[in-house]
């Protein structure tokens, strides 16, 4: 028998005035939900979560807010004799995050109300929170279970995130720097760089900042609780005035991730899909931007041969317009620097995967000129249960100085799978148990099915044949994803629970020289081995080896719970067996 109860009231002046006069509603920590459910499949509801010590008084405050009074109709208050302030803050945070990932309601809270609260007996309360969620699910406040929500793109890319210490410090410092620069009315060129390995939460920071800045600009809900949060100090009149009317945007070079973020922004009050743009859209905009946040900045392009003559002309026309014809070799990073008063780059140089990506040496030259107090390094691993050790291990394996011994990573499930049939069985089994399990592969097979829909692209033997991803955007959530293999261009920037990684014949191992090498003929990404003729930059074997090993390192660091690896080249398989046991 649980100790909590949920009571329901109408959210209007008459009902609030008639609330029962009992201590739990006027002098006790509680959590409450205000909402109006969606009407019909295409509409969206509205929802707001809060915690308070004086529920009756807080409801009267909310009725003074025009947006809430117009958009919300029902109150649910969660009461428990064992609740304390810390437990209520934690429950509120849980419910906000789940509601954002559920996706059926506009969450009217600020993201500053989401935190990670440690307190006595938290484990016990967390179990109670799951029971509370399930009761709210049965009453229609939520539409999906917790596992379904946690696996959704809305949850993973939502701005309602608990920041770790690295992320919180970076966000706080970036905001203070922006306030300083905006107050001084500095001109174009203020640069901030956030670096981090896969899974350290670079996209989390980008989306969190977009929501925080947007809410400050409109001073969302001045009555909202949150005086104890570290970002509440920004919701003051002087700061609001600095951010009011600013032109802000988020730049995402990859098509698939950009589409997913647009979907999240459309479902988040204060944000809009039009805020998520390509570098081209920024460059061609008639006005400059006050703040641009660039996610996956390592995927910004230098000038190179484009997929079509029209695309070539577009790149050239942008350079001519922005730089008066004086910089024909200007890159997309140059465009953004020319268009933004404040530019924030989220960057991992080890995730460059094509010759068109801006060269590492150019970024290093740029970073040398960025003041130390405008550079941030994220260290804490947020994705992989294998932690930072697993991420470093993978990159070391593909380096010139590989590990000297095999390591294990606790509950993280990783190993080689010799049988392609076994690989498929493992991925399907984990999909049935945990969801979000996919097969991904290096670009070591031609994309025949692009023109012939019936053709199979990847033949691994044992009757296992796969097509490349039919969907080029949001492939992870597409209906046919379990029968396909995703490429680097569909999976970079995404999380999986389990990844089945196929390493093709493009990457091999020489047991005599004791080194990795690449087979150009087996690498079928034509743009992936193209020379950058305008800059007289050849895609040498050394550069291509770096790019292909980066691709496989990215693929092998997508899995939250585990990674299964199938290797085509026998010698590479023997090499990797030094570091991973064989499964099955």
Automatic annotation (TrEMBL):
All copies of domain GIY-YIG, residue ranges: 27-110
A Pfam family hit: SLFN-g3_helicase
InterPro entries for this protein: GIY-YIG_endonuc, P-loop_NTPase, SLFN_3-like_DNA/RNA_helicase
Name assigned to this protein: DUF2075 domain-containing protein
Lineage: Bacteria, Bacillati, Actinomycetota, Actinomycetes, Mycobacteriales
């Amino acid at each position: 028998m649980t100790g909590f109860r949920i009571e329901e009231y109408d959210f209007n002046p008459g009902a609030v005035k008639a609330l029962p006069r009992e201590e739990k509603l006027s002098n006790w920590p509680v959590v409450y939900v205000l909402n109006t459910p969606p009407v019909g499949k295409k509409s969206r509801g509205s929802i707001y979560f809060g915690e308070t010590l004086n529920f009756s008084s807080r409801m009267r405050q909310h009725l003074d807010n025009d947006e809430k009074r117009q958009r919300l109709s029902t109150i649910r208050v969660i009461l428990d004799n064992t609740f304390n302030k810390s437990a209520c803050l934690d429950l509120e945070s849980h419910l906000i995050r789940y509601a954002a990932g559920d996706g059926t309601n506009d969450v009217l809270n600020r993201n500053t109300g989401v935190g990670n609260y440690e307190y006595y007996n938290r484990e016990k309360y967390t179990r109670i929170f799951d029971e509370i969620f399930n009761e709210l699910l049965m009453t229609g406040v939520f539409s999906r279970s917790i596992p379904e929500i946690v696996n959704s793109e809305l949850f993973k890319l939502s701005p309602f995130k608990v920041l770790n210490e690295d992320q919180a410090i970076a966000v706080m410092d970036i905001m203070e720097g922006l306030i300083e620069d905006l107050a001084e009315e500095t001109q174009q060129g203020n640069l901030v760089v956030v670096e981090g390995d896969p899974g350290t939460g670079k996209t989390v920071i980008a989306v969190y900042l977009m929501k925080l800045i947007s809410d400050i600009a409109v001073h969302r809900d001045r009555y909202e609780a949150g005086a104890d949060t570290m970002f509440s100090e920004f919701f003051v009149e002087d700061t609001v005035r600095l951010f009011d009317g600013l032109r802000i945007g988020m730049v995402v070079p990859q098509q698939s991730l950009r589409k997913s973020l647009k979907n999240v922004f459309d479902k988040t009050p204060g944000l809009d899909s039009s805020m998520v743009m390509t570098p081209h859209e920024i460059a061609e905009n008639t006005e400059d931007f006050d703040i641009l946040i660039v996610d996956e900045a390592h995927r910004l392009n230098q000038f190179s041969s484009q997929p079509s003559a029209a695309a070539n002309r577009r790149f050239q026309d942008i350079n001519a317009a922005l730089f008066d014809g004086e910089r024909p070799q200007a890159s997309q990073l140059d465009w953004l620097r020319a268009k933004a008063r404040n530019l924030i780059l989220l960057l991992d140089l080890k995730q460059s995967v094509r010759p068109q990506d801006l060269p590492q040496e150019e970024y290093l030259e740029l970073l040398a000129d960025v003041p130390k107090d405008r550079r941030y390094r994220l260290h804490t691993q947020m994705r992989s249960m294998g932690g930072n050790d697993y991420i470093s291990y993978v990159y070391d394996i593909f380096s010139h100085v590989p590990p000297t011994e095999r390591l294990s990573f606790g509950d993280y499930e990783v190993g080689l799978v010799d049988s392609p049939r076994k690989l498929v069985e493992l991925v399907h089994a984990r999909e049935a148990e945990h969801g979000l399990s996919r097969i991904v592969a290096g670009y070591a097979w031609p994309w025949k099915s692009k023109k012939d829909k019936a053709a199979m692209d990847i033949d691994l033997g044992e009757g296992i044949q796969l097509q490349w991803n039919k969907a080029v955007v949001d492939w992870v959530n597409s209906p046919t994803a379990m029968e396909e293999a995703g490429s680097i261009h569909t999976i970079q920037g995404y999380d999986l629970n389990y990844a089945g990684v196929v390493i093709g014949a493009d990457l091999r191992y020489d047991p005599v020289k004791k080194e990795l090498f690449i087979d150009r003929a087996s690498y079928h990404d034509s743009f992936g081995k193209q020379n950058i003729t305008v800059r007289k930059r050849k895609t040498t074997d050394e550069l291509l080896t770096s790019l292909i090993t980066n691709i496989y390192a990215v693929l092998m660091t997508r899995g939250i719970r585990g990674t299964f690896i199938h290797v085509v080249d026998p010698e590479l398989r023997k090499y990797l067996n030094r570091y991973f046991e064989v499964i099955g």
